[in-house]
Write a structure and sequence with these properties.
The chain is mainly alpha-helical and 145 residues long. The chain has eight helices and no strands. It has a single domain, classed as AhpD-like (Up-down Bundle), CATH 1.20.1290. This is Carboxymuconolactone decarboxylase family protein.
């Protein structure tokens, strides 16, 4: 395997900027447990082992159950998620896989109805942020510890 760079060491400003987005999201009205779910789900879709491990650890520390973490990959068929969580997971999938079909009006309208404008803006930015982190982790082959 070719040696990969460590962006955080070479260009810490990039990490600082992404971390500032995450800090703003953490201070928003969004539920931290829901943010954990979207981070794990986006990381599963993108195949970022580092982020999956990191965010499942965070979710467990906040009290998330193993049952729900394991079911996250099949959330549409699982009885363990609320309607609000289903809306944010649908948005997470559509933003993460934006090249497939974009964000549908149905999903967008549902999220807006459940979360309102400001929280929807924060959700979209949270999804964009974790997708950026996933791409860093995958491109530089960050390994779980």
């Amino acid at each position: 395997m070719a040696k990969r760079i460590k962006i955080g060491l070479l260009e810490p400003k990039f990490y600082e900027m992404l971390s500032a987005i995450d800090k703003h999201i953490a201070e928003s009205e969004l539920n931290p447990a829901q943010i954990d779910l979207l981070k794990i789900r986006a990381s599963q879709i993108n195949g970022c082992a580092y982020c999956i491990q990191s965010h499942t650890k965070d979710a467990r520390a906040r009290g998330e159950t193993e049952k729900r973490i394991y079911a996250l990959d099949a959330w549409e068929e699982s009885p363990y998620f609320t309607d609000e969580e289903r809306a944010l997971l649908a948005l997470t999938e559509e933003v993460t896989l934006i090249h497939n079909k974009r964000v549908s009006d149905e999903t967008y309208d549902r999220v807006l109805a459940v979360f309102g404008e400001k929280r929807t803006a924060n959700l979209i930015m949270a999804i964009i942020s974790i997708n950026a982190w996933n791409r860093i982790g995958i491109a530089t082959r960050m390994t779980p510890v």
